[in-house]
Design goal:
Number of helices: 5
Number of strands: 8
CATH superfamily of one domain: gp9
Largest sheet: 6 strands, mixed
Oligomer: single chain
Distance between the termini: 185 Å
Strand order of the largest sheet: 1-2-4-7-8-6
Strand content: 5-15%
Length: 363
């Protein structure tokens, strides 16, 4: 006997399409009607397996067949869902296609090959618009660039051979090194300020200025004639040289004009003393009533007497008078270094470097 449907599910036939499969848009409606049937008739035994498709509802003469028809449709719909891609991170196969975005679109919309081709063509049009001619340059392509200005401040230029830079080698050849340069032509340099005394290069203008300044100085100090050099051979005139503040060495007796011409001069001494260069060939009268007088003969580094210099000494008073060797000097004598008595005469003679001989009325 055919089953009779409750009035609430008589619209079931509208939930299937022409091939008797459940429409996706009515899945929940089908579940609602199944729940209504279970409520009206009670639940039956679950059929674990089924294969087939929905058939025309009128061909099923039992409620069980109709449920199996519904279950089969649901299983097939579940299988069709497995062939769909997920919304999150889908992985497509075959040849996926989609709407082509408008040229210039810059969003997360997927790009089709048609969009990429249009974008490349638009880029070529942009290079023409901005005056770019020739091929586009790749970062690693081997290409010859022309009419370019490359800033060394914002770019790093390395491994460029000298021969690749126009005129570099010839320009360098025309330059002088920093160390010991040899100039040609007429080298010029800034003129230093007057009085500069450094390693700065002197120009002819600097030299002429210094010479003029020197001439003005000599004139202002009343100097006439040439300038005396420290080691230059020159004849000095109208000069007075103090023997106390100057040292005279290797002056031959015969070269001293206006000096003694054979006659000795006498010089009085009342205390111990060391002869000076001006005392050579003078007779020293050492006189004191009670205090002994000592004549010290010096070494060369103290007073550089020339070999042959003589220092005559007369004992002029009652007090003793004697010779003594200074530091570093050697004095030869016999029998002693003291003048024997009042009016005794003894002479010290320079015989060699740092060496003296004392001879006369000695004791």
């Amino acid at each position: 006997m055919p089953a009779v449907f409750p009035t609430g599910i008589k619209t079931y036939s509208t939930k299937i399409d022409l091939v008797d499969t459940v429409l996706a848009a009515h899945i929940n409606d089908v579940q609602t009607e199944v729940s209504a049937i279970e409520t009206a008739l009670g639940t039956g035994t679950l059929v674990s397996t089924w294969s087939g498709t929905f058939t025309t509802p009128g061909s099923h003469t039992s409620m069980t067949a109709r449920f199996l028809n519904i279950e089969s449709g649901l299983i097939e719909h579940s299988a069709s869902i497995a062939t769909k891609a997920p919304i999150a991170s889908p992985t497509f196969t075959g040849t996926p296609a989609g709407p082509t975005a408008t040229v210039g679109t810059n969003t997360t919309q997927l790009a089709t090959t048609a969009f990429v081709t249009s974008a490349v063509a638009a880029h070529a049009a942009l290079t023409t618009t901005h005056g770019v001619s020739g091929s586009l340059v790749g970062t690693s392509d081997t290409q010859t660039l022309t009419n370019k200005t490359i800033s060394g401040g914002s770019n790093t230029i390395s491994a460029v051979p000298q021969s690749a830079i126009s005129n570099l080698i010839s320009d360098l050849a025309a330059k002088s090194p920093l160390a010991s340069p040899t100039f040609t032509g007429t080298p010029a340099a800034p003129t230093a300020s007057g009085g500069t005394n450094t390693t700065q290069i002197a120009t002819t203008a600097f030299v002429n200025g210094e010479v003029a300044t020197h001439a003005a100085l000599t004139s202002s100090h009343g100097a006439t004639g040439g300038i005396v050099g420290a080691s230059k051979t020159q004849t000095l005139t109208n000069k007075t040289m103090d023997g106390g503040s100057n040292t005279f060495t290797n002056i031959p007796w015969a070269s001293i004009s206006g000096g003694p011409s054979g006659d000795l001069t006498f010089q009085s001494k009342t205390a111990s003393f060391t002869p000076a260069l001006v005392d050579v060939h003078k007779v020293h009268t050492a006189t004191h009533a009670s205090v002994a007088i000592v004549v010290t003969l010096p070494q060369d580094t103290d007073i550089a007497f020339s070999v042959g210099s003589t220092i005559p000494v007369v004992r002029g008073g009652a007090a003793a008078v004697s010779f003594s060797a200074g530091t570093g000097a050697t004095v030869n004598y016999t029998p002693g270094l003291g003048l024997r008595a009042q009016y005794s005469l003894a002479t010290a003679v320079k015989t060699a470097a740092n060496t003296w001989l004392v001879t006369g009325d000695l004791a």
